[in-house]
Amino acid sequence: MRVGVILTVVITAASLAGCSGPEAKFVLAKDTESLMKEARKPIEKVVTEHFGTPHKLVGWEKLPIDYGKADKAVPGHETAGWQLVEGRNLYMRHCLHCHGVSGDGNGPTAPYLNPRPRDYRRGEFKFTSTAVGVKARRDDIHLVLQNGIPGTSMPSFALLKANELTALVEYVRWLAMRGEFEKRLVAELSSDYSVKAVNDRRKNNEKLSDIIDAFNKLMTSTKEAPSEFSGTIKDVGDNLAADWLAAEDEANLIVPKHPRHLPSADPQSVSRGRALYMSEKLKCYTCHGLAARGDGTSTVDYWAIPGSSPEKKFEARGLHDNWGNPIKPRNLTLGQYRGGRRPIDLYRRIYAGIKGTQMAGFATALRDAKDEKGNALNDDQVAERMDRHIWDIVNYILAVPYQQQTIEPLLPMTAAATPAPAPAK
Ligand code: HEC
Ligand code: HEC
After folding, report:
1. Is the CB of 113 under 6 A from ligand 1?
2. Which of 195, 265, 296, 425 could disulfide-link to 287, CB 3.0 to 4.6 Å?
3. To test the ligand 2 pocket, which listed residue (147, 331, 359) has its Cβ within 8 A of the most ligand atoms?
4. Which residue, by CA, sits nearest to atom 15 of ligand 2?
């Protein structure tokens, strides 16, 4: 295994945002705590080896992070990686009190906030310009820093300098990769070595000493061969790097092939958008409500915890995000959008959904295979129709705050269930 450490920086505790309290530390994730204690240690060791501590950062060259070059060294930090150090310093000053030292969304201010600050360690961000299943681009995080997240406590940092924002974006990405590296390593071990798995194995008459022996074997390198776990570390690192690189790939950026075709005021486009909103195919109303006030029936249902097996439901009614926090569908009559209010931002929200939430993307549902007369469509026609549908929905969303009067007396749901066909142009 090649651990390329391009950066090791030692700084004094006092220079960390002038904090004079207890020394800043990266904390272990909850998942890690669920492993048997013999397995926790190696996880902590490996993560520290590849990422260091807040006071002694390590830049793992495998990761697609722009650490900064040695020729622009910050005085006192002549080694490579000035940008990561700069990012850390800015983060400690501006972000730590909400997002926490480890980027776990658990800073000292966090318990008082709703919504909670993002925990970056899932490697997942909500408002992205990338396809379903693809991570956030640098540009997405940059946009969030530029605009803040309206309607939440996440402030805008537009007053920082361009190079400061760049350093912050890299540091946030680095914290996200750090957290995800830990999470993925734990996932590799938990089916055999979580406290629960070990208890189950013992119930099946496996001896604890045998389980620990097997674990130690997994961790042990010999002269002839590196340990099985070092292979796991390499694979996890490779996959993680590839996933973050893919997010920067232009092929994964959502770009409409066809421009927004009509001004938002066009009543026909708005009413087609409304019909799609009410359609059985998209079912926006089940979450956002008949009058788009964010109060659909889904907000009182009990929802399954994602990834739970056997399936478990959240204790509280209503939607929850992948972090387990309760979320509400947006009240669209207010005209406030967290992921940006440009038409292209809304296009992307409809296309790929809001990542880490139950609002999944609708691009697939909006691809018609046939036209109204039943003729098969070619790829270009499918793409054009999908764009037209999405822009109709965007036009509807943008009209909602001004359309109270026309929305109140609703069409009967059955009549609205089939979207009106778009006129041929
Ligand atoms: C006062 C508290 C607060 C501060 C300070 C703060 N944030 Fe946030 N941040 C939040 C909250 C709350 C959210 C989640 C909002 C939501 O879920 O819609 C958030 C979300 C985010 C997200 C996630 C965006 C997404 O698409 O999922 C990023 C990235 C982020 N913040 C970065 C930063 C950075 C970098 C700083 C410092 C420069 C910072 N934040 C400072 C409260 C804060
Ligand atoms: C399963 C429930 C669900 C469905 C179905 C759903 N949404 Fe959402 N929607 C949500 C939730 C939850 C949020 C807020 C997520 C968050 O910020 O954490 C949201 C947010 C939004 C936003 C705000 C985006 C922003 O940047 O703030 C818009 C616009 C939106 N939805 C439109 C739609 C449209 C149009 C449809 C149908 C094509 C739809 N939604 C279907 C649950 C849903």
Report:
1. yes
2. 296
3. 359
4. 329
Token couple for 289: 């409500």
Query: Is residue 278 domain-resident?
Result: yes
| 57-76 residue pLDDT tens | 888 999 999 998 755 655 54
Tell me the CA end-to-end span of the chain in Å, nearest whole number.
Answer: 59
Domain identity same for 289 and 226: no
* One domain for residues 301 and 217: no
Whole-number pLDDT of residue 70:
58
* Separation of alpha carbons 404 and 141, rounded Å: 34
What is the number of other CB atoms lying within 10 angstroms of the CB of residue 255?
10
Q: What is the pLDDT of residue 418?
A: 46
* Per-residue model confidence (pLDDT) at position 140: 98
Within a domain: residue 260? no
By 3-state DSSP, what share of the chain in percent is helix, strand and coil, each rounded to 5? Answer: 45, 5, 45
Pocket (CB within 6 angstroms of ligand 2): 126, 277, 282-284, 286-288, 298, 319, 321, 327, 329-330, 332, 337-339, 346, 349-350, 354, 357-359, 362, 393, 397
Mark which of 253, 279, 307 sits at the end of a domain. Answer: 253
pTM attached to this predicted model: 0.91
Residue 155 half-sphere exposure toward CB, CA atoms < 13 A: 9
- Give the residue among 67, 45, 66, 57 at the shortest CA–CA distance from 182: 45
User: Structural domain of residue 75, as residue ranges?
Assistant: 1-253
Question: What tens digit of pLDDT does each residue of 319-341 get?
Answer: 999 999 999 999 999 999 999 99
Choosing from 222, 253, 284, the residue where a domain stops is 253
Q: Are residues 318 and 194 in the same domain?
A: no
